[in-house]
Design brief:
Blueprint lengths: L3 H10 L6 H14 L3 H28 L20 H7 L3 H5 L2 E5 L6 H14 L4 E5 H13 L3 H10 L2 E5 L10 H12 L4 E6 L14 H12 L3 E4 L12 H9 L8
Parallel strand pairs: 1-4, 1-5, 2-3, 3-4
């Protein structure tokens, strides 16, 4: 008698139905290798644990709202020779999450700030941390939308308690009232309680310019972000290079040349 049909409802009742995915293969392996019952059971349990871990990771990745699969393995360090690779790999251990401090990344457009931030987020998710990636505009828009439907407190607490919140494009748009107050309140609530990554096109001394309407709120916000923070400057050429032929086109136009029509 084949035992799998009889086991199927029992495993489902115990919420162990994932074992069915590898049961036949493991059974054949146990017969071929003449494994003891305990060794066979160990293989099945390890399969189930791996399946559950992968399921949790997939869920964390969906909730993280990453733009794409940007990982540290795919980051082009060669374009940024002045960047300290060892420091970046140390950040990827995610000790900064346990330290509950910020990682502040500044640099010109196209130098890989968003890629690096998401890569650190991927590393955090793989290590079991809940992560959310959002632009500054999207983050504040979500709070405004929540306020409009009476769920502001719930949304705010969710954002405040996330182990890792990644805010992309900080300062790209000036923070006006009441967004500047919401942003300050969120950073203040997360201060020394959770880790935050910010990316910005502004140089670090210019970050105060993101709060044109209230310098005092800006100073208080940045003071909390900077305390114990890891600072990274990306200084290099843009990844978003011109398409082939565009530079030649510009050169010809600059010389007053005529472009032949196809």
């Amino acid at each position: 008698m084949h035992p799998i049909p009889e086991l199927t409802p029992l495993l489902k009742q115990l919420r162990l139905s994932g074992i069915l995915d590898s049961l036949e293969a493991r059974n054949r392996e146990a017969i071929d290798r003449k494994l003891a019952f305990t060794e066979f059971l160990s293989l099945l349990i390890h399969d189930e644990v791996a399946r559950r871990d992968n399921k949790k990771l997939s869920l964390r990745m969906r909730r993280a709202n990453f733009r794409s699969q940007k990982t540290l393995e795919g980051f082009d360090f060669d374009r940024l020779p002045s960047l300290n690779r060892a420091a970046i790999h140390d950040l990827a251990t995610c000790r900064f999450i346990d330290e509950k401090v910020a990682v502040l990344i500044a640099g010109p457009c196209g130098t890989g700030k968003s890629h690096l931030a998401q890569a650190l987020g991927h590393a955090a998710a793989r290590q079991g941390h809940d992560v959310l990636f959002s632009t500054q505009s999207q983050l504040l828009a979500s709070l405004r939308s929540a306020a409009a439907v009476g769920t502001y407190d719930r949304r705010f607490q969710y954002l405040a308690k996330l182990p890792l919140l990644i805010i992309d494009d900080f300062g790209l748009k000036p923070l006006r009232s009441p967004d500047d107050e919401d942003f300050h309140d969120l950073i203040a609530e997360r201060y020394e309680r959770a880790a935050t990554i910010l990316t910005s096109n502004l140089d670090f001394p210019e970050w105060g310019e993101a709060f044109p309407g209230n310098k005092m709120i800006g100073a208080a916000t940045l003071d909390r972000l900077r305390h114990g923070a890891h600072k990274i400057v990306l200084d290099g050429e843009s990844y978003r290079g011109l398409k082939p032929g565009v530079e030649t086109l510009r050169s010809e136009l600059a010389k007053g040349g005529k472009i032949k029509q196809p």
